[in-house]
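Here is one chain, start to finish.
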Amino acid sequence: MKKIFLYILIILPNLIYSQTRINDAGARFSIKLRYKLNEKEYLNLMYRTRILENFSELNSWFIDAGYGYKINNDLKISLHYRFNSSITNNNYFRTLHRYYLRADYRQFINKYWILHNRIILQHTTHRFVTDIQDNGYKPYYRTDLRERIGFSYNLSSSDNIFLHNEWMFTLSDNPVELRRNRLYAGYEKDINDYTNIKCYFILQSSFHKRKSPNTNYFIFGIDLNFMIN
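Its structure:
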């Protein structure tokens, strides 16, 4: 089974490249602080920045603050606010405010295989104060439901390979539509107690009329995680 999963990860990038080509490559860097209130509750504060256009252009950055509750060893829920700034097609940075409820489920099938399931209900808004006054634009808002499900395989106690799929439905549209689908495949390793690195591919299919049909990425990520008791 391990050889099968490794084979999938080897052929998937070649399949993506041969069929649709990798459109972009980039990197992400994040710092997360977690304050443990008690055995069940915790607070999170995270900063993340993302670079795309073949590692040459800042694409977005955000600050995320959240409260989490651990229901049991397999399930936790959290409530978040995110202040996000991302570049638009017109090459200016747009500020977005996101409020979301998140549930994370993890089930150990055996000592190697882990099932992952994440559900996010999010509301994103942007206050077009200047645009309303100058151009008469309507305020922007959107409500989405995202679900990611997949598997990871532990190569050792500090690294794993993973394959996940995520769907995003826009609930604020009438009728509700599937906005995009993303397939993630990659490798993850804990360098030490605080540092985690990831290398992965994203095969994205966008179904919204204003989005390009396919955008495929290679991403290298570094995450720094600190726990405060």
